[in-house]
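Subject: for your reference before the review

Hello V.,

The reviewers asked for a structural picture of the protein, and I figured it would be easier to keep everything in one thread rather than splitting it across files. Below is the amino acid sequence we used in the manuscript, unchanged from the supplementary table.
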Amino acid sequence: MKTRRLHHVVFADDFFRSAANGLTYHVANRRFLRAFFDTALGRLGLPVQEVAPLSDGGRIDVARLMARLDLPCTPAGWARACIADLAPLAGRDGMPAFDPGCLVIGWGLTPALQHCIDRGGASYLDIEIDPRRFTEHLHFCARTNDPAIEAALRARRVDEELFWNHASVIKGYFARRGAASLFDPRLRVGLFFGQSLVDLSLVGGGRTMHPASVIAPLRELARGVDLLVIKPHPYEPALHDLAPIARAIPNVAWTQENTYALLSANNVHFASALSSSVLAEARYFRKPAHALIHADRNARSQLPAACSGWMPIGAGLGAMDFMAEACGVISPLSANAAASASAWPAAAIEQAFALRWGFDDKSQGLRDVAELRLDRPYMFHPGSPAAGWLSHGWAGFDGEGARSEGELASLVIPLPALAPSQSLAVSHQSPHRIEVRVDYRSNAKATSVHAMFDGVVLPARRVTGARRRSLVFDIEAAAARKCLVLQFVVADTGRSLPRRALARPSFTIKRLQVSLRMGRGVVSAPPKATSMRWAEMHPLRAAARVFRAVVDSARGVMG
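And here is what came back from the structure prediction:
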């Protein structure tokens, strides 16, 4: 004889994030939940169903629901729907009426959906991948509005010491495989981690937030370090959302180094982001973490009062003993299931997702970066000291030098400390200056390359041929300047032609030389006050395609 507290199970996700609102709907998450829990629920005799939008063969008419909420069918409308009151929609246009005795197992449920489920008297189990992804195996994290399910989760919570111990192992790993510091041990470095352009964790106050909206607090953080280093999200190729940081904050560099190698670096003094999951990991590497927005998905004021906090849970979440306890089922099938969690495959999540988000033993440590010697010419080729200065946006080497890849390429070059006599001269306003010369070649006549230093676009002059360039400019010979950071914006200025569709714009950097000079040089950059800024780059159309202003980027990304 069976007794049960819950009578049926509904699998759901954020179905408002669908094609009806101009967004990509990740149906695989809901299908994973259905398959993952199917065996245990079937053995317990609990009926199950899935709910989905019309675009995925379900019954939920998202467009009509958006109209009832008086919201536009756009990504911006979706963000508002994440915190809207959905109670009036229950039972309409395919929207389920969640009632007592129903358990909703969801993936990334929005605050609005959690409230809708809770107010209907149903229980929910909200599941995601735990943000601490550097352990040997990935874990789930889960939260619920149901006290019985919360107690079952707490009994299976992953021990906090596991994360501390794995972080210690990773720090030891990188200590044996690379440099102890990022770029140069003399530099105090802060990190900013980019995120996917459309993400529930970026919704704050019902609006999708962008880096441009946090420039002020980020600039304040950057004042406490020598370099603010941007680490773009590995699965987000577009960089225009991060461009406002590079325009507004002078001491910005970019990197493609491994996240955990960065968090292990001795000279990294903080990690920051809008709301990246990396911030949850940073504390285990003893790095202060700064979240620059308050995401609605974790704001207590936006969640049901009964909602628990996130709890890390092993892959055994799908085992019989947990599901029987969570659903309040007592039956002969569940009586002997207490040991089922221990038999669950430890690598179950990695196998199901066929993806290893976290640390793996193929990760390399930080590169050793050579300090530049004044007046020495450097060629870019494998094994050269200059190769260590390629911090972001480089695909490798060709016969002439280092080849760029994508819309942005950057260099970070540690500068030598000025000799005491030079430092004294500089302090007395001697006409010392540092002259920088960079020789490069674009892959096509229509490739536009603009270099930026301290937020200013630098002029370049042609040397030989239509595709060869020489960039020569001066910087102040300040004793406190520890490194030189150059950013190159790459764009295609020609019209889109079929024959050129496969030729992505790029350039090859061949040679660099930095010299200490006295007096005026023949070629120098104009004063900052008259130098072109990003908005004035020519041609404007090409620059806009590469680094759009935040309003244009918001239109392009958010609809």
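For the response letter, the relevant points are probably these. The longest helix spans residues 27-43. The chain has 16 helices and 25 strands.

Happy to draft the paragraph if you're swamped.

O.
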